[in-house]
Amino acid sequence: MYSNFISLSKKAFESLGEQALFLGSFFRNIFRRDFEWNELIRQCYLIGYRSFPIVALTGFVLGFVLTLQTNPSMKEFGAQNMVPGMVSISAIREICPVIIALICAGKISSGIGAELGSMNVTEQIDAMEVSGANPIQYLVVTRILASTLMIPLLTIFADGVAIIGGFIGTNISGDMSLSLYFRKSIAALVFSDIFPSFIKSVLFGFVIGFVGCYQGLHSNRGTESVGLAANAAVVSASVWIIIIDAIAVQITSAFVYN
Q: What does the domain layout of the chain look like in residue ranges?
């Protein structure tokens, strides 16, 4: 038992050390000359634009279901007019950033892990190094930056769609005009609701891209390693998202909401 614990602890520390070195190589390659702008734009398109349908559907369902679930309870207290503000605060402050990040971890992080894992298996990365190309700058930096840029934008888009879903949910059993609903939704928000959630979504995007690239490049050379890299990327990114969210909530509660 003790030897197993020592072995697991050793592997955990080795993995953390490798990730720290990988993080250092990422930052070193950001500011090198001949940055791959075309590849960054392509990755922004793949990560951002192609994720719009699933993000739109998720945001709408979140706002719609949240409204339907809370509307009866608020009606008992005669507080139906507070539903728009409650939906906007809940969606923007916590629900949309976390749920969208978890969905993107399953879609984007796994895709990056599988793509780079397959390139590693077929020795394409070795061929890039032999030809003089920089695989870290071309493959890793562009994907991590694209994920860091696109996840916050997708989250903002989901916030807006969630408010629209809440409006439709409100008018199923009630009658509130669109202008009144949006005025109540926006009036309930303050800067301390928006800024922390934006910072969280930036961190979520960085983690999603970083974990996907790390797992893909550090996969084994067997064909089954591609699936393992994709699965490990999803699990690791999801765990990091939950940890970052828990830390961010504590910091926000201590310094912003008090």
A: 34-255
